[in-house]
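Revision sheet: structure tokens.
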Amino acid sequence: MMHSAQKKISGKRLCCCLLGLMLLLEPFRAGATSEIERIIDNGGYIVHGGTTFLKFKEQNLFIPASTLKILTCLVGLKNLGREYRFETHFFLDKKNNLYIKGYGDPLLTSEVVREIGHTLAGMGIRSLAAVYLDTSSFALKGETAAEENSDNPYDAPNGALVVNFNALPIKIARDQTITSGEPQTPVIPLMAQAAKQLAPGMHRINVNTLLSEGQRTPALRYTGELFVVLLREAGITVPGYNIKPVPPNLQPIYIHRGEKSLEEIIRVCLKNSNNFIANQIFLACGVKTYGLPATWEKSRQVFAAFTQKTLQLGPDKIIVKEGSGLSRQNRMSPAALLAILDLFKPYSTLLKRQNDILLKSGTMKDIYCYAGYFPKGDDLIPFAILLNQPNNNRSRVLEILHAAVSQQGSH
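Predicted:
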């Protein structure tokens, strides 16, 4: 057995070794932080794991842009579950009217609508008196995540019954001939209106910039026209569509459940940084907790409760107005984002991999952010970089932090 004197000597040696290691690593730490702080005008960062702990203004609030999607996806997975699937319900009344009621499926694409048409035809439906769209499961009152009404597809509005992410693909020839901008989407009347303000070429526009026709918003026109054309393609006679809620007590004849699980949808969302998908998930979380209809406020309450109870973060550390990061009213500290990343570790492979780094970027005018994980042996070291400044130095900050983590791991 080791005598007490020997134990004391061994303990002293261990302390000396640890102190020596800390002194050895300190130049790397000091050099990394001093260079980063010279190039940051307004921003902060934090990286923490193992022997690595680098930080700067980590408690200050900044606009996170799309790095907020990590929180949205985390709450979605916790609230809805990995295997959650969005639904769209179809009803048929005695007069042969088809009602389509949406519940916010973000992947209701032309391919899916085409499959639905063939499914309904396979059920023996050959002729319809009318198609009615029911969007009563959402009550967004005109509020959108984007603060600027642009024709950019990433600003497309959310809704209960939306096709193709509310982005309209158009191809305009030099002779002004209008065709669809993608093979899976047929030409619909809405494209002619959209093309009036466009130059020849390929376009994908946010339908919200187009004109409404009474109750028919551009988004509902897009949905209605696409369903009518593709139902006809499936061999079903249909004169047209309108807006009308499903009659009480009418039971669905078919429920379309999304092919992709929530986990698969999140992989798509994070890979493409899809704002529309992120906010459909955000709104679904509010419905799960508070019931229909979906509203922005219900979801804000869900996210506030999660950040306060699960992450122990108050509004002085994080403010969530919507789930995509489009709103400049969103606020987050680097330390808050790190806490989110700690909980997101089991789902870390849903993030894109860039040069071995699991990474989510966030970009708007004068907003440049990164968040993710540095690999270190079998571990993942979370980091958050939030820059709210004209100079986009985030790649250099990332490079320096990555080097510091790697160097500290090699000594």
